[in-house]
Amino acid sequence: MHHPSNPHSTDAFPSSAAFDAISSSLANDEAGRKDAIKKGGAVFAFELKNDAKQTESWYIDLKETGTVGKGAPPKKASVTLVLSDKDFGQLVSGKANAQKLFMSGKLKVKGDVMKATKMEPVLKKAQGGAKL
Q1: Which of 20, 26, 37, 51 stands the most exposed, by the fewest C-beta atoms within 10 Å?
Q2: pTM for the whole structure
């Protein structure tokens, strides 16, 4: 019997806690959610790879709903960010900068690169809520 909140997901992907934090910050702050949709205007997908070489996907819909989900987005993502779980954790905690990760080849962007830059303020929302 699988428990809906799968504990392995956070164990294998520690930084995935950030998605929960972003999700709750968007859900609990209607003005902030509307603002994020206005600024984001896109569906962002993330492919994270952990140390065990497993890959998991998440998405943040800042085009219409302002929601976060696991797996592939229901609508085609405007941009997909591919990086390691560790680098994503650093990005969310503000220890790493998306541009530097991109320049050093640790962050791969598929789709609209300009949209990727709209992601940073939303990731900053997670810093308030996520205890990483």
Answers
A1: 51
A2: 0.86
Separation CA 30–CA 106 (nearest Å): 33
Angle at which helix 30-40 crosses helix 120-129, to 10 degrees, equals: 150
Q: Report the distance separating Cα 29 and Cα 51, nearest Å.
A: 34
Residues of the chain with pLDDT under 70: 1-10, 127-132
- Rg, the chain, Cα only: 14
Domain 7-129, what architecture?
2-Layer Sandwich (3.30)
H helix intervals, 1-119? 7-12, 17-28, 30-40, 85-93, 98-103, 113-116
Give the bridge partners for 83, in sequence order: 48
